[in-house]
Amino acid sequence: MQQTNQSEKQVVFPEEMFKVVGRKEEESEKISKPVLSNWQDGWLRLKKNKAAIVGLFIILTIVLLSFVGPYVNEYAYDEAHYDKVYSQPNNEHWLGTDKFGRDQWTRLWEGTKVSLYIAVLAALLDILIGITYGAVSAWKGGKVDNIMQRIIEILVGIPNLIIIILLIMIMKPGIITIMLAMVITGWVNMARLVRGQVYKLKTQEYVLASRALGASTSRIILGHMLPNTLGIIIINLMFTIPSAIFTEAFLSFIGLGLQEPLASLGVLINDGFHSMRNQFYLLAYPAIVIVALMVSFNMLADGLRDAFDPKMRK
């Protein structure tokens, strides 16, 4: 009897000796990582892209110098000193002087500021017109969309450079004229991108629910659709700005853009081109700045595309 009682005894092990494999039932719905918005997740991905961060740093540095650089010495960008014509870079004139004795350091950063101003403002106007046109075209659909898209096809069929040159020849060359010339057809690509996104989003459940609840068209577009297209808009903006910088520089280089004594990167490159055999520095410095800007904007745009486009995420 004693042997039977001893055999029936069970060995009890303490709970500390056991470990649960896998997730406990009470923790099955627990979120282990903080919830990130699309912008926060995109920023984290962007920071991992070294090329994009380098491009962003270069852009911010050039922008800062364009605003601070013209005021770190006592020379104005259009101030001529005929006794210092074609001075080589020295302690007084850090980047030398041009054919009128004007300080190249001041003119370089003043010209960079003007070129950035033209490019950014033209790009913003492109985006404003493109977003409005594309969103209305996709939302209305039907005959309205067909007519609006035929207008875009006509504008695409006309070479952009011809329109710009004709407008500048009719109007007086200047900052406003160049911006208007670039805006005439520059918004077409943005309109097409926004139209495609709105067409895709307007059939989503949350948009249909908003319409069923009586939300106005403007509220649906501004509150639901545009926030979901901001990633594409920002990426396209980063590609548009260097294109506008190059267009302004090209027009000024061929003599259809800004005219001296005004300064822009195109004006400086045109001036340096005529003196490049003996004063190569007049061409080198603005060329370096415009190349740095265009490469940096393109690197940043590639990084933004990889960060915000779900198809490009690894």
Gross morphology: flat
Could you report the average pLDDT, rounded to the nearest whole number? 82
Distance between the termini: 70 Å
Radius of gyration: 30 Å
Assign the CATH class: Mainly Alpha
pLDDT below 50 for ≥5 consecutive residues: which ranges?
none
Question: Proportion of β residues?
Answer: under 5%
What's the CATH topology label?
MetI-like fold
How many strands, which pairing sense, and closed or not: the largest β-sheet? none
What is the number of independent domains? 1
CATH architecture: Orthogonal Bundle
Number-wise, the strands total 0
Number of helices: 13
Order of SSEs? HHHHHHHHHHHHH
Percent of residues in helices:
55-70%
Name the structural class.
mainly alpha
CATH superfamily: MetI-like
Q: Can you describe this structure?
A:
The protein is an all-alpha fold and 314 residues long. The protein has a single domain, classed as MetI-like fold (Orthogonal Bundle), CATH 1.10.3720.10. The chain has 13 helices and no strands. α3 packs across α13. The longest helix is centred in the middle third of the chain and has 37 residues. The N and C termini lie far apart (70 Å). The model has no long low-confidence stretch (mean pLDDT 82).
Secondary structure: elements and pairs:
Elements: H1 2-8, H2 38-48, H3 50-68, H4 104-140, H5 142-157, H6 160-170, H7 175-186, H8 188-201, H9 205-212, H10 217-225, H11 230-253, H12 265-273, H13 281-308
Helix pairs in contact: 2-13, 3-4, 3-13, 4-5, 4-7, 4-8, 4-11, 4-12, 6-7, 9-10, 11-12, 11-13, 12-13
